[in-house]
Design a protein that fits this description.
443 residues; nine-stranded mixed beta sheet; 20 strands; 28% helix; binds manganese (II) ion
Length: 443
């Protein structure tokens, strides 16, 4: 268990953006013998049982396949999770100076409580792509001697009016600007601090201000994943929604022998903003990858792809809201998930009368219970909070469109979408065990 948690925390530290997660997962997959699907396509390589391939899109989304003994048309066992997390993105024209202070203007990504992101150490991660195609990877704020950044908040002494505002207005979106410098460059009068920042960027990365137009820079909490609690039973870290499901799925996928049904692990982007875009689950990326694999396993024609997808089983894994005794009013205890009580299954999600939910079939749930029980996996069935307290969506309804069996699963965490989220170490172990059982034994 200790070794698994150590690797999990290392993965969280190395994967603070969707690109970093996919780069890491790709390296781990290749290490485990996975080969790039593009290579197989260009060589027209025949794929057979035991072969391991992966497809990825722009370092943001990835699908891994471990070809099984059975005909692919009979379907796959699929694990899916997302690798994007709520954060604060840098705008396209971000840099400005005001009263001798230089800032980066931002637009937050996903659902955050703005007030939680002020006065904490923040790091800058991402890429800057220059016109000639050169890509610069940026990570500032993670090494011991790196500088960090911050968003300011009003001092309590002058906050009489602010303190009477509702929480959603205390820090408004446009106020989430990142303070990045105060030192003027010598010999300049106007915007001397901003010019100094640009000169530092030029030295560090050889980029100009205009290059920020073609950049993807993400502001995330600085620092590493930590053990939490005197008993060290928990992990406190940024981005566990949904990397706790992504990494446990990945660990399970890399740790199975050739299965009967083809095993698949999907790590996708853009879930936090609706799964749109070429790297989100709504893109045809996954379907296209399956079509290529069908062809390389000797199946021709669209109908094979459709059969394979509709005969598949999926665990759509995303975090669930762990019951919090400090906020019992938003939970209904019998149908809540709890820290350390194992893998969570949710027949349905959604809000306002299960709207937007994939409501999975009783027959599928029964088969899943059987596999979990046979393998001694600890699990719980839960909804996300009280009826009409709020709600949330996942990628389950998207893959369900192929007619496959899908259920929402995942792990319970505290403080979802906060800069630091809290999970249970025991649950992480149960998840890996449960995911392996699903991949290898689900019929
Ligand atoms: Mn999520
Ligand atoms: Mn989320």
């Amino acid at each position: 268990m200790n070794e698994l948690i150590r690797i999990y925390k290392e993965c969280l530290n190395a994967g603070k953006t969707e690109r970093e997660c996919i780069r890491l997962a790709t390296a781990m997959a290749e290490e485990a013998g996975y080969i790039n699907l593009n290579e197989c396509i260009s060589e027209n390589r025949e794929l057979k049982a035991g072969d391991k391939v992966y497809a990825s899109y722009n370092e943001k989304t990835m699908a891994m396949f471990h070809i099984g003994n059975e005909d692919l048309e009979k379907g796959m066992n699929i694990l899916g999770a997302h690798v994007d997390s709520p954060r604060i993105d840098v705008k396209q024209n971000p840099l400005y100076e005001e009263e001798g202070m230089a800032f980066l203007d931002t637009h937050y990504y996903g659902g955050i409580k703005n007030y939680q992101w002020v006065t904490i150490p923040l790091a800058l991660h991402g890429v800057i792509v220059k016109k000639d195609g050169t890509r610069v990877n940026v990570v500032i704020g993670e090494k011991e001697d790196d500088p960090v950044f911050a968003i300011s908040d009003l001092l309590i002494h002058l906050s009489r009016e602010q303190m009477s505002k509702t929480a959603s207005k205390v820090i408004e979106g446009e106020k989430l600007d990142l303070l990045i410098g105060t030192e003027p460059i010598e010999g300049e009068e106007k915007d001397a601090v901003k010019k100094n920042i640009l000169s530092i960027l030029k030295d560090m990365y050889d980029v100009e201000e205009a290059d920020l137009l073609s950049a993807e820079l993400e502001i995330v909490p600085a620092g590493k994943a930590r053990d939490m609690g005197l008993d060290r039973s928990m992990v406190m870290a940024y981005g566990q929604d949904d990397r706790i499901c992504a990494f446990t799925s990945l660990f399970a996928m890399l740790d199975i022998d050739t299965p009967d049904r083809t095993a698949c692990c999907l790590l996708v982007d853009k879930e936090e903003i609706g799964s749109y875009g070429a790297s989100g689950m709504q893109s045809r990326f996954f379907e296209n990858a399956v079509a290529e694999i069908m062809l390389l396993t000797g199946h021709a024609g669209d109908i094979s792809v459709r059969r394979s997808l509709s005969n598949s089983n999926m665990l759509s894994s995303d975090v669930n809201a762990a019951f919090d005794p400090l906020f019992p009013e938003v939970f209904e205890k019998k149908n809540s998930s709890f820290l350390s009580k194992g893998l969570v299954f949710s027949k349905f999600t959604g809000s306002g009368g299960k709207s937007g939910s994939n409501d999975s079939n009783a027959e599928y749930i029964a088969a899943l219970r059987n596999v979990m029980d046979l393998n001694d996996v600890k699990y719980q069935f839960a909804e996300l909070g009280r009826v009409d307290a709020g709600g949330g969506g996942t990628i389950a309804y998207i893959t369900a469109q192929y007619g496959m069996e899908v259920i929402d699963s995942g792990l319970a965490i505290l403080c979802m979408h906060a800069p630091m989220e809290i999970s249970s170490k025991a649950d992480i172990c149960e998840a890996v065990k449960g995911y392996k059982a699903f991949l290898t034994q689900m019929k």
